[in-house]
Each structure stands twice: as structure tokens, then as C-alpha cells.
Amino acid sequence: MFLPRLVRIVVTHRCTILCRRKNSHNPYIFRTMSDMERKIIVDSDAGIDDAVSILLALKECNNVIALTSVFGNTSSEQAAVNLCRIVGIHCASEEMKTCCTTKVYQGAVHPIMELSRPKSWEGHGPNGLGGSNCEEFAKRFLPSVEEDHAVNAMIRLVKTFRGEIDLIALGPLTNLALAFNLYPDFFKDLKSLYIMGGADSAKGNWSAVAEYNFASDPESAKIVISAASASGIPVVVVPWEPCERSGISWSHFDKLTTLGTKRSQFLKSISFSQETLFRSKARKFILADVFAMMALLFPEYVKDKVQVHMNIETSGDYCRAMCVIDWYGLNFPDKPKVILCREFMTSFVWDVVETLLKS
Ligand SMILES: [Ca+2]
Fold it and tell me: Which of 33, 164, 177, 258 measures 20 to 30 Å from 217, CA to CA?
């Protein structure tokens, strides 16, 4: 099953050095030096699933060059504080002597067209991380939020490392839309863009038809999907539905949160609100953003993906922020397309999460 991946790596000569990671979740998955040294920016509203995704990126890559905050699961200010704590937990878990070089920047505080930020989902708790201040896990390493604004930092970094940065957006897309409006080559100068957002079958988790990240700033979602797909770079969208289908039972959650490590204890601590809300209703434990991060870091675990033209509805009484997808190419056959990830190899994804939490 995994041989084609290895063959592909060798045949395409992506890198001359193949590294087999210690404690790898799967002995047949090889990571190249280029995988580990790739430059990544994570734009995030710093909730529970964002936290696990970022810990995974920090563990698997040596060059997560920036974490940028945006409103969503909490305020942009609080999200920036949370991102610092997540970096601190990574450094403490790795028993580093000094904190890693990943910088944290604060970004947009409200959507482009609204003057207040949308309501947050209560499952992320009062501060986005279940109400936990995380200090017991991260007190040795707590980086400060940089003075530069997230949008300015993103533009600067993208200009500095033209064509080298994988940008992954795990919250409302406001920072990215602002960056594009300020610097029209912003998307063209990326290596790739990954987005957790939207609903591919209109199964809304916020409105009847819209997913939370897109519903929080539909105009920004429209700008980003349209401009990024037209830029020619790969634009990979992980919608809500496969993330929900890939949720796990609470007994599985119990296993992941009693592994005796800092990361495992941290997940238990920050999941308090989601556990309170969902466990008694027998709803599954879901980490949506992790699947977008997996699409970036472990694309071999994406089971089903398709190229489609996607647009975002920004008006209407019922359909604002809905993803409008031209499934059969009948209406926009010549328009730019995104890569839509529709299904994952779920058990492998959760094995990766368990390996992360065990370390
Ligand atoms: Ca998020």
C-alpha cells in the first residue's frame, strides 16, 4: 500500500536523503529532508484542534516560521496568547534548552465587512483552549507576541521566501484576504495554500449550509478562494464533512488523554468544554483542523480528493457563506479549481495523533 509513495520519492528525486523518523507511527512512511525542512506559516484561531495541529507541525517540521492569530474560536488577542502557549508546550515536551524559533504574530480582530467578531462556539471554552491557561505545561517556555502585525509579517515572509512557503489556514480567512488586498502577488508567491473550511455537501455546522470558518467572514473566504485558485498554486481545501465523519469515540479520547505525557495531559486539559458538551450526548470527539494539517504533512493519508471549481455565496436569506461547487464542470469549466479533500484514511490519521501525544 505504501510502496508507491516510496517509489515516487525515489523516482522524482525530491531529496537525496531519506530519513526514517524515530518512533514513527508507521515504519513504511519515510520522511525526506525536504519534508522536514519545508517552511510553514500557520494562520489560526487557536482552538483545541488548532492546538493539536500546530503541535503536530512543530513536531514534524523544523521550519514552522510563523504562527499568526485571527479571531474565531476566541479573540485575535487571546488567540495570539494561546499560540505562544502552544509553542511553549512543544518546547517543554521536547525538553529543549531554549524555546524554538517560531514567531507568533497577532492578526485581524474582526471580519472585513463586520465591525464585531462573530460568536465563538462554546466547545472551545472561554479562551479557545477550554478555559485552561496551560501554564503548568508551558511555564518554562512562553514566547512573546511580536510587535509586527500578522498581515505585515506574512507579506514580509512571503516576499523573503518567494515560492517556498506552505501556508495553512485553520480559522476565518481574514488575514489572508487582507494580505492579498495589500500585496496582490501574495498567493502567487506561496508554494501552496491549505485551508480547513467550507462544507462540500452544504452540511453547515454554523448556519444550515455554512461551516464556521467561512461563515465567520464570507467575504474573505470568497476573496481567498477566488484569488488563490487563480494564482496557479495548489489550493487544498479540507471541508467540514470528512472531519466530522472521522471523529472518534470517547473511549478512544480517554486512551489519547491518559498517555502520561505533557501533550496528552494538555489535550485533556483543553478539551474540557467539548467533553462537557458532547460526551453526554454521545457525539464524537472531533479535531477538524488536524485533517487539514494531515493533508499538508501526510498527503498519502488523503483517500479521496477531487479538483473542482468552488465559489462562496455572500448573499441570500439562507445561503450566505455556502460553498457553491461545480461538481460536473458544467457551469465554470474553464475557471480555476481547488483540490477538495473528501475522505481520509482515518485510522492512520489518529495513529499519527496518538504517536504525537505519546512523545
Ligand atoms: Ca481553527
Answer: 164
Q: Which residues contact 7 (CB under 8 A, 6 or more apart)?
A: none
Q: Sheet containing 192-196: give its strands across.
A: 103-105, 63-69, 39-44, 165-169, 192-196, 235-238, 338-344, 302-312, 323-326
Give the CATH superfamily of 38-358. Ribonucleoside hydrolase-like (3.90.245.10)
- C-alpha cell at position 304: 479521496
Return d(Cα 18, Cα 38) in angstroms, integer.
Answer: 14
Comparing CA positions, the residue from 36, 42, 84 lying closest to residue 60 is 36
Where in the sequence of the chain do the CATH 3.90.245.10 domains occur?
38-358
In this predicted structure, the answer to whether residue 25 has a pLDDT above a threshold of 60 is no
| Residue 308 Cα to ligand 1 middle (Å) | 23
Cα(303) to ligand 1 centroid in Å equals 22
The rounded Å distance from CA 16 to ligand 1 centre is 35
Q: Cα(23)–Cα(81) distance, rounded to whole angstroms?
A: 31
CA of 19 to the centre of ligand 1 (A): 30
Stronger pLDDT, 276 or 110, i.e. the higher one: 110
Is residue 57 pLDDT above 50, yes or no?
Answer: yes
pLDDT recorded at residue 138: 73
Give me ligand 1 centre to Cα 44, in Å. 6
User: Ligand 1 centre from 342 Cα, in Å?
Assistant: 18
How do beta strands 31-32 and 103-105 pair?
Answer: unpaired
DSSP H helical ranges for 232-345: 240-245, 250-256, 262-270, 272-278, 288-297
How far is ligand 1, taken at its centre, from the CA of residue 326, in Å? Answer: 26
The tens digit of pLDDT for each residue in 116-153 reads 888 888 888 889 998 887 777 777 788 899 999 999 99
Model pTM? 0.92
Cα(197) to ligand 1 centroid in Å equals 9
Using one digit for the tens of pLDDT, what is the confidence trace for 314-327? 998 999 999 999 99
More confident residue, 34 or 2: 34
